[in-house]
Amino acid sequence: MRILLVYCHPCPESFNAAVRDRAIAALTRAGHEVDLLDLYAEGFDPVLSAQARRDYHTPGVNEADVADHLARLRAADGLLFVYPTWWYGPPAMLKGWLDRVWVPHATFKMPEKGKPIARVMTNIRLVGAISTLGSPPWWWWIIGMPGRRTLLTGLSVLCAKGCRTFWLGLHQMDSADDTRRKAFLARVEARLAQIA
């Protein structure tokens, strides 16, 4: 399987970088091809400009500035996000990537009268997310798990029918000691080894 791994963290020394590296190693060891898309390293501009918003619904025009990212999405069988959860959702950089790259006609069909939004990214059969969170699990559940819902539920309905999803989260990251962090990395490795 060809996996587009979308990584989003500004600090190269972060624990998220360790998660990214473990994910790449586990997927490669399992025989998957990994295309790493490091949003900060490549200097991705997450800002949806006024003109981009005006062009948002115009087929082709809305793809021009993000053609490379769309090509990588179209070449992928699976999509994996590795990022920190900040203020209950993905970092602004990752949210901006969704706003700018997941555009109508290229990644989904706009709802028509009496019909819901329609899937276009049928090449993607798996969507996964791995995140670190400051909140405890019970609080994350109470507030409705917004970042998880955006990435897994929101995107998977635009992908192949029966698209599989998974989520791994290290809660209370700010107080996680080395033992908990190592255990989480092992959990990441074990989960990714299961991808067929």
CATH topology: Rossmann fold
Count of helix runs:
7
The gyration radius over C-alpha positions equals 17 Å
Name of the CATH architecture: 3-Layer(aba) Sandwich
CATH class: Alpha Beta
Mean pLDDT across every amino acid position: 95
Which regions have little confidence, pLDDT < 50, spanning 5+ residues?
A: none
Approximate helicity band: 25-40%
Question: CATH H level: which superfamily?
Answer: Flavodoxin domain
First CA to last CA: what distance? Answer: 8 Å
Structural class based on helices, strands and sheet pairing: alpha/beta
What's the domain count? 1
Could you tell me the strand content as a percent range? Answer: 15-25%
Report the major sheet.
Answer: 5 strands, parallel
Order of helices and strands: EHEHHEHEEEHHEH
The global form is globular
